[in-house]
Amino acid sequence: MAPGCKLQLSVMATRPVEIGPAGLHAARAIEHLRLARGLTQQQLAVRCTALDRPMTNTALSRTERARRRCDIDDLVTIAVALGVSPSAVLPLPTAHGPLSHAADIQGVLLG
């Protein structure tokens, strides 16, 4: 480094990023779809692992309770393991904006 130059370091946020309305909807939809199919968290975890995305029932539990963020790779694998399109666990756009804050889970099952 040249004399007189300052080194700047970026600092990562120390608080976790909150789970927003789409994440909350997805968490509820995953649990609802799993229960509708008569699967335990352990059984769904085994299905996800068989799809080359290792997952524990603890991770699924935390995801369903919105205590763990669900990344896109997890979301796609969970949806496939549940036999639905990944879009089936996401909220639908509404006239009030891109996300439904009070999305009806029944629409997920009928869609």
From TrEMBL:
Pfam families (alphabetical): HTH_31 (PF13560)
InterPro entries from the UniProt entry: Cro/C1-type_HTH, Lambda_DNA-bd_dom_sf
Top-rank lineage group of the source organism: Bacteria
CDD domains: HTH_XRE
Ranges where the HTH cro/C1-type domain occurs: 30-89
Protein name in the entry: HTH cro/C1-type domain-containing protein
Organism taxonomic ancestry: Bacteria, Bacillati, Actinomycetota, Actinomycetes, Kitasatosporales
